[in-house]
Design brief:
The complex is a heterotrimer of chains A (about 300), B (about 325) and C (about 325). Chain A is built from 12 helices and 2 strands; from the N terminus they run αααββααααααααα. Chain A is an all-alpha fold and about 300 residues long. In chain A, strands 1-2 form a two-stranded antiparallel sheet. The longest helix of chain A is centred in the C-terminal third of the chain and has 38 residues, at about 215-250. The termini of chain A are close together. Chain B has a domain at about 85-285: MetI-like (MetI-like fold). The longest helix of chain B has about 40 residues, at about 230-270. In chain B, α1 runs antiparallel to α12, α5 (about 85-120) crosses α8 (about 180-215) and α11 packs antiparallel against α12 (about 285-315). Chain C has about 325 residues and is α/β, with parallel strands linked by helices. Helix content of chain C is about 30%, strand content about 25%. Chain C contains 11 helices and 12 strands. In chain C, the strands form 2 sheets. Chain C has an 8-stranded mixed β-sheet with strand order 6-7-8-3-9-10-12-11, with helices on both faces. Chain C has a 4-stranded antiparallel β-sheet with strand order 2-1-4-5. In chain C, α4 crosses α5 (about 125-140). The mean pLDDT of chain C is about 85. Classes of the chains: A mainly alpha (about 300), B mainly alpha (about 325), C alpha/beta (about 325). Chains A and B meet through α6, α9, α10 and α11 of A and α1, α6, α7, α9 and α10 of B.
């Protein structure tokens, strides 16, 4: 980052650098991430949240979405209160007597599932579109990129709003909406780096070997597009999670029967003005920590994978 | 330049047409408004009357044709719920949204650019690191949640600023605005900050990256070799190069801010278009949804067009190539 | 001999690499008389550009001048303050850089970029005078219709024309010394020839001393009077240009001359110096060239001073190639 204005002469240190242990590229990136203080923080935050949300059903004191386990008389208790049955609500309860700690963990599960699956689907679709666009060129390229440009000129939240207005609520519908809002970013990224890679001479060399097209694309061009794709994917994942929460908060995302951080915050909104801050505060903090963690990893990845910083 | 303008205008019209078809088909094919509009106790006769009154018995393409010719005449249909022209409803809410969006954008520019320039010029200073930490936070904070927290802190706990509404407005050129009265301004501050926060982070990052990239350019070294003062290098050479690409981004962000106003308006009960559309979605008020979408698409296309033109005016390289890519 | 316009005495410039201060150039002594053109020759990584930037006072953060003096008309620049250095840069010493496509700021007009070089050193200059001087300077470097070209942007010029503009900017304040860091390397050979002969004429006319940094011996042959050969951050040989080219003393200089293809007869394999330029943090002890030198012996690892081989003729070698003479 802090490259000097007057660079020292080009240093050909690489030729003399001891090669070191041979790591897989994956491992190399991971080790570099661990060495970066911020990225490590991100890894730990995301790691912890991932683990607790996976094991949530076994560690939470109640199933917050089983109405039989809720008691309306426990409603809106501040953090640290005791229920009639003697259970302690460490983060308090919402208006229906739901233990917020349990509800947050369940909400995190939903956030992660919705975010990760939409990011994964969008990545595959977008990468495919980008590769086709870059490789086919000409009219196909123009049409795909026209669609991408058109879509990217509208903010994600607006497209999601339109889709959900049409489709209605539901976990499958919100995943669909998130995929539609995200794929274009991946398509553009992959096309950009695929075009650069195509112009490199090694691709000509491979083409001269008369390998099948699919082989050239998948084993030669695609791997070289991965670094920017991974960076975009992390950033988009964070955005998708945030967007899901936002849409659910607005009441057009997940239905009230699904555990969701956005809905919890929305519920707490009504009681905020009377001073019952915890219902909105804690789910928001959980969401914040998750998104900050992913963004920190993304920032670290970008510094590590950006060829300009590799010198 | 004229050819370029014509081409871009044609693209805008095409986009509008495609979007109108997509939106129309989506809204009219998938939802079933008959069930929503008509109470279960209505007699079959009443049902038929309502269906005929709204033209729901016609084939889809006839409905679209009616919709298209009407919208070209400025008639985007009547709201099912308010029983008023949808266009009029939306236009009456638009000034509130635009005021909020502009304030947020101005805030983002005037806070984000100086901070970004500083962080780019002195990347190793403690202050720069703090700015960057803030920007990561700003990127990660969900807008709606930070809005709630602002309400909690400044309205509930401290009682400094009002939590909802637009406050007292005055007419400026026939348009009601809040920022000219103390009460209106007090109502505007929290929503504007809330909406600006994400954009501030964005502007900081883009500015910083641009400044850092620019500083490594040979022409900066040449400028120093000419014996220019640091101030001249930063304010003329670095800033001009950094701000030109930023104009595009910030211009396009205006659209995004208008879209995101949906969230802020919901949190602060700001009586804008965003609040209207959320309610309309809840009520399946199709003409209103459709009209909102058409107007938003139109606004976006216009913003994109204006930004493109602006960019070609500011950047000498684009200007002379006549806008060709 | 009168006092030289520029003399560098015992210059050492270090860069911080992995926490260690590593010298990029050390023990550099050189001088330039008024109106004289000297060559500073070496491969990339030899320290010639760092030497040039050190003279300009343009060495930045991880780098620093750690020893020596740079005397411009008797005034030491190493100990001069920041503001004094700025006043001298562009006024008394000017620099021209390698890549003409990168040295001019793409978003500023030529007149802006020229006139700021004048006003940076004379705040009272009026726009009319400044403009006239800029126009004359453009004419001087052979740019047709300078009046119109002043209003142009850099991208409207060819590479050769841009380099002429850069030269015109360097000449604007009639500097005593011009440092040219490979300014013709990126240009076509025909343009290179034109610029070389123009530079020669301009230096004769204005009395400016010129330091021509290059890796290209063919350029040095026709242009300069004396040549300094650098390798591994040190001057390894210096002398009159004909002496150096005809009777090199240092084995490295001989290798460099032999590497120029026109020294070969057709069919003969091209000569190359074995091995690679060492990185600055991995410099061998003693003579930096000895790992690549056919004549190397254990003595080459000791300290080797520059020793005289005739008037104005020095080399840093324990196995000088003097048997030819």
């Amino acid at each position: 980052m802090s490259e000097p204005m007057s660079r020292p002469m080009p240093m050909e240190t690489d030729a003399f650098e001891p090669v070191g242990e041979a790591h897989s590229p994956f491992m190399t990136v991971f080790l570099a991430l661990v060495r970066d203080r911020f990225a490590l923080t991100g890894l730990i935050l995301v790691g912890v949240l991932l683990v607790v949300s996976i094991i949530a059903p076994w560690i939470v004191p109640q199933n917050p979405y089983d109405l039989a386990e809720l008691d309306i008389l426990d409603g809106r208790l501040p953090p640290g209160s005791k229920s009639f049955t003697g259970m302690i609500f460490i983060l308090g309860t919402d208006d229906q007597g739901r233990d917020l700690f349990s509800a947050i963990l369940y909400g995190l599960r939903t956030s992660l599932v919705v975010g990760a699956s939409s990011a994964a689907i969008a990545l595959v679709l977008g990468a495919a579109a980008g590769l086709i666009s870059a490789y086919a060129g000409g009219r196909t390229d123009a049409v795909i990129m026209r669609i991408v440009d058109m879509q990217l000129s509208f903010p994600a939240i607006l497209i999601a709003l339109i889709l959900l207005a049409i489709l209605g609520q539901g976990i499958d519908k919100i995943i669909l909406a998130l995929v539609v809002t995200q794929w274009a970013y991946y398509a553009r990224t992959v096309r950009g780096s695929a075009l650069v890679e195509r112009r490199r001479s090694y691709v000509d060399a491979v083409i001269c070997l008369a390998l099948p097209k699919s082989r050239i694309i998948f084993s030669h061009i695609l791997p070289n597009c991965l670094p920017p794709l991974i960076v975009v994917a992390t950033m988009r994942l964070a955005y998708a999670i945030m967007l899901e929460a936002t849409l659910s908060f607005l009441g057009i995302g997940l239905p009230v029967t699904e555990p969701s951080l956005g809905l919890l915050i929305s519920n707490g909104f009504e009681y905020l003005l009377s001073g019952d801050y915890w219902i909105s505060l804690f789910p928001g903090l959980a969401l914040l920590v998750l998104v900050v963690g992913i963004n920190l990893i993304g920032d670290g990845l970008r510094d590590i994978l950006n060829p300009r910083h590799q010198g | 330049m004229t050819a370029y303008l014509l081409r871009r205008s044609f693209q805008t019209v095409l986009t509008l047409f495609v979007m109108s078809v997509l939106v129309f088909v989506g809204v009219y094919m998938i939802g079933n408004p008959v069930d929503v509009l008509i109470s279960a106790s209505a007699t079959p006769q009443e049902r038929q009357d309502i269906i005929r009154a709204f033209g729901l018995d016609q084939p889809v393409w006839t409905q679209y044709w009616t919709f298209l010719t009407n919208s070209l005449a400025g008639d985007l249909g009547n709201s099912f719920v308010f029983n008023q022209p949808a266009l009029k409803l939306i236009l009456s809410r638009m000034p509130a949204t635009l005021e909020l969006a502009f304030c947020a954008l101005v805030l983002a520019v005037f806070v984000g650019i100086p901070l970004g320039v500083w962080a780019g010029l002195k990347p190793d200073r403690l202050t720069s690191r703090m700015i960057m930490t803030f920007s990561i936070l700003g990127f990660s904070l969900p807008t709606f949640w930070i809005g709630l927290m602002l309400v909690m802190l400044f309205s509930v706990k401290l009682g400094w600023l009002p939590a909802s509404g637009r406050g007292q407005t005055v007419e400026l050129l026939g348009v009601p605005v809040s920022f000219l009265t103390w009460d209106g301004l007090a109502h505007l501050i929290l929503p504007a900050i809330n909406l600006a926060l994400y954009k501030v982070s964005l502007v900081i990052r883009l500015t910083r990256a641009g400044v850092i990239e620019c500083l490594q350019m040979e022409y900066i070294r040449f400028a120093r070799a000419k014996g220019l003062t640091d101030a001249r290098i930063v304010f003329v050479h670095v800033l001009k190069n950094t701000l030109i690409p930023l104009i595009t981004v910030i211009g396009l962000e205006l659209g995004s801010v208008i879209a995101f106003a949906v969230v802020t308006e919901t949190v602060f009960s700001w009586p804008g278009m965003g609040k209207l559309i959320i309610d309309a979605i809840g009520n399946l008020d199709r003409p209103l949804i459709l009209a909102y979408l058409m107007i938003i698409v139109l606004m976006f296309s216009l913003i994109n067009l204006v930004v493109d033109i602006l960019y070609s005016v500011v950047d000498p390289r684009v200007r002379l190539e006549g806008g060709s890519e | 001999m009168t006092n030289p316009a520029l003399s560098v005495i015992g210059l050492e410039t270090c860069f911080r690499i992995r926490g260690r201060m590593v010298p990029a150039v050390s023990d550099v002594d050189l001088f330039v008389d008024k109106g004289e053109i000297i060559g500073l020759v070496g491969e990339s990584g030899s320290g010639k550009s760092v030497t040039g930037l050190s003279i300009m006072g343009l060495i930045d953060k991880p780098g620093e001048i750690t020893k020596g003096k740079i005397l411009l008309n008797g005034e030491d620049l190493v100990s001069a303050g920041k503001e004094r250095l700025r006043q001298i840069r562009g006024a008394r010493i000017a620099m021209i850089f390698q890549d003409p496509m990168m040295t001019l700021n793409p978003v500023l007009r030529i007149d802006t970029q020229m006139m700021e070089a004048l006003s940076a050193h004379d705040s009272r200059i009026d726009a009319e005078t400044a403009r006239t001087r800029c126009r004359d300077a453009l004419g001087q470097v052979g740019i047709p219709s300078p009046e119109e070209r002043l209003k142009a942007y850099p991208h409207q010029f060819s590479g050769g024309m841009r380099q002429r503009v850069a030269i015109a900017i360097a000449l604007l304040n009639r500097p005593d010394i011009i440092i040219a860091d490979e300014p013709t390397t990126a240009l076509d050979v025909t343009i290179q020839g034109q610029i070389l002969s123009e530079m020669q004429k301009l230096c004769r006319d204005t009395g400016a001393g010129l330091v021509w940094i290059t890796h290209d011996l063919t350029v040095v042959a026709g242009l300069t009077t004396r040549v300094y050969v650098m390798y591994g951050g040190r001057i390894v040989e210096l002398g009159a240009v004909d002496d150096i080219l005809d009777r090199p003393i240092h084995p490295y200089t001989r290798g460099l001359i032999r590497s120029v293809p026109w020294h070969n007869r057709p069919g003969e394999p091209l000569y190359q110096i074995p091995g690679m330029t060492p990185a600055i943090d991995r410099m061998p002890a003693g003579c930096r060239f000895h790992p690549r030198c056919a004549l190397a012996t254990p003595e080459c690892r000791g300290d080797i001073p520059l020793s005289a081989f005739g008037p104005g003729r020095f080399a840093r070698c324990v196995h000088p190639l003097v048997e030819d003479s």
